[in-house]
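Practice problem 4.
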């Protein structure tokens, strides 16, 4: 994803790049005007393009901003390294075109600086590949727009059609396809064969354009590839956790790789999974070009790739040039007339069953399901109710998901977390363990648009768990199974003590704090109960028995 260098942020993080020669203790202009007792948190930074070719420009992009506990403005000090040797001539966000060469490794190091203190250093690196596909150094300087190669230069995506026997599948196009050579990826979890058994998957390539084919599976697969269209199959790259075999048409080169780390296990239909994003990046680096489309499903015995109508694929992504809408508190009017018995109790909770949004009456244990077929489902350990929306980290990928409580429509952000809370109307995400940045940080999104546009602010914290809820300026944090709740203070992220729980040492399927007085925990699995405690002492106040699993809690009191 190409990210804007300048992102709309609060005053807590001002995106200014200065030379690394700036000395700590010397305030850059407009920086460090308030009381300053703490260093800023780390900034998350990446190099774009992530698949870089020789002589291309490199640009440092901010993924998640630094956060200063004192509210000071922050600048980012950059250093660039070529093959681990610092390049002092380059101290800004860009390495100009014409500098890099094939085989080099370039790294950027970013240090947040608040005028007095320097925060932790973070970095990203990229391997420089050979010339990009289509580069021509033959000396032909003809800049005429005439093109006799037959390519479609309209910018239209050919709307490639992918048939299979796996039912609905993920189809993701990476942008308009200008014609010429395309890279197409097919990803599954398994064939129709049993676990750890090699199964056949037939792939028929019936395309009128040249293509590089990428295939990936978690389980062992024998990919049998046939080309019948006018286009030329120029190569096949296969990847998997278990063994992969490829039978290709005569003369088509084949490469098979087994990347290390679970990030590269194919998940098939879960395009929003972070593991799929990592897998795509790895495949692009190996073929030396960016993918044009991705098609996945859980299991199948065949794929057929055909050209479509040539109609452009609409851009359905978020408009990251526009600010998001600030959140308010729970809009209880959306439940008017819904589950009146449960919402009429002194305390009630919005929660999630295996297949529906529901209301729990916290005095009786009565559960009323009212919004079925939502994508949250099993394993959702936290929910947050803001305005008319329910937010959660949902599904097998722990994707940050928003459900409209009025009609059940859903949106997903490319953000992954163990759990989510709400702080001052903003979303606070406990990052997924798969991100590699889980420990020592939480992700702060002032709006859902910020999450959609990958514009997090990072809050450094003293500890991480897998469940959170927030009340006031306190994060209540728990391990998945525990007898103790930890507390963190915001915005500092510092440890603020713990709450020992009376008669509770089991799984936490959901957690909420009501009015700063009651702590509510779901032990609906495995103990068929929801427990209520004094939030200050952890003394048990009452339990209610429930007959089904309830994942995630956002609890309120009636006036």
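Answer key:
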């Amino acid at each position: 994803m190409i990210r804007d260098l300048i992102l709309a942020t609060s005053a807590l993080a001002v995106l200014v790049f200065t030379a690394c020669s700036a000395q700590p203790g010397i305030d850059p202009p407009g920086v460090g005007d308030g009381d300053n007792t703490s260093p800023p948190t780390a900034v998350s930074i990446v190099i774009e393009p992530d698949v870089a070719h020789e002589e291309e420009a490199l640009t440092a992009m901010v993924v998640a901003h630094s956060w200063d506990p004192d509210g000071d403005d922050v600048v980012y000090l950059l250093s660039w390294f070529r093959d681990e040797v610092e390049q002092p001539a380059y101290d800004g966000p860009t390495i100009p075109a014409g500098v890099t060469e094939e085989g080099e490794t370039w790294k950027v190091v970013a240090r947040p600086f608040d005028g007095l203190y320097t925060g932790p250093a973070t970095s990203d690196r990229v391997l420089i590949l050979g010339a990009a596909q289509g580069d021509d150094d033959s000396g032909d300087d003809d800049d005429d727009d005439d093109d006799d190669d037959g390519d479609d230069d309209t910018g239209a995506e050919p709307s490639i059609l992918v048939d299979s026997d796996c039912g609905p599948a993920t189809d993701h196009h990476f942008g308009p396809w200008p014609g010429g050579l395309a890279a197409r990826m097919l990803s599954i979890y398994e064939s129709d064969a049993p676990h750890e058994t090699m199964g056949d998957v037939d792939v028929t390539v019936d395309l009128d354009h040249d293509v590089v084919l990428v295939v990936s599976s978690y389980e062992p697969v024998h990919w049998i590839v046939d080309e019948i269209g006018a286009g030329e199959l120029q190569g096949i790259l296969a990847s998997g956790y278990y063994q992969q075999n490829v039978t290709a048409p005569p003369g088509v080169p084949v490469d098979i790789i087994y990347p290390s780390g679970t990030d590269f296990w194919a998940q098939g239909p879960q395009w929003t999974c972070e593991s799929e994003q990592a897998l795509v990046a790895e495949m692009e680096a190996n073929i030396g070009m960016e993918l044009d489309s991705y098609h996945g499903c859980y299991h199948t015995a065949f794929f057929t790739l055909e050209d479509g109508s040539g109609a452009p694929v609409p851009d359905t992504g978020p408009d990251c040039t526009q600010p998001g809408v600030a959140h308010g508190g729970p809009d209880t009017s959306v439940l008017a007339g819904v589950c009146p018995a449960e919402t009429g109790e002194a305390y009630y909770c919005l929660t999630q069953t295996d297949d529906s949004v529901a209301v729990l009456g916290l005095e009786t244990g009565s559960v009323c399901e009212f919004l079925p077929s939502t994508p949250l489902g099993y394993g959702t350990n936290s929910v947050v109710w803001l305005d008319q929306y329910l937010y959660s980290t949902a599904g097998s990928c722990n994707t940050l998901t928003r459900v409209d409580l009025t009609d059940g429509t859903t949106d997903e952000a490319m953000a992954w977390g163990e759990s989510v809370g709400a702080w001052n109307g903003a979303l606070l995400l406990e990052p997924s363990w798969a991100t590699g940045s889980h420990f020592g940080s939480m992700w702060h999104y002032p709006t859902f648009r910020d999450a959609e546009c990958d514009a997090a602010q990072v809050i450094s914290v003293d500890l991480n768990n897998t469940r959170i809820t927030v009340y006031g300026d306190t994060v209540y944090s728990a391990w998945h199974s525990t007898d103790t709740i930890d507390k963190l203070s915001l915005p500092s992220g510092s440890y603020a003590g713990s709450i020992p729980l009376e008669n509770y040492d089991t799984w936490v399927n959901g957690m909420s704090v009501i009015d700063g007085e009651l702590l509510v925990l779901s032990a609906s699995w495995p103990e068929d109960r929801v427990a209520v405690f004094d939030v200050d002492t952890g003394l048990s106040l009452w339990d209610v028995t429930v007959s089904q699993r309830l994942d995630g809690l956002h609890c309120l009191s009636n006036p």
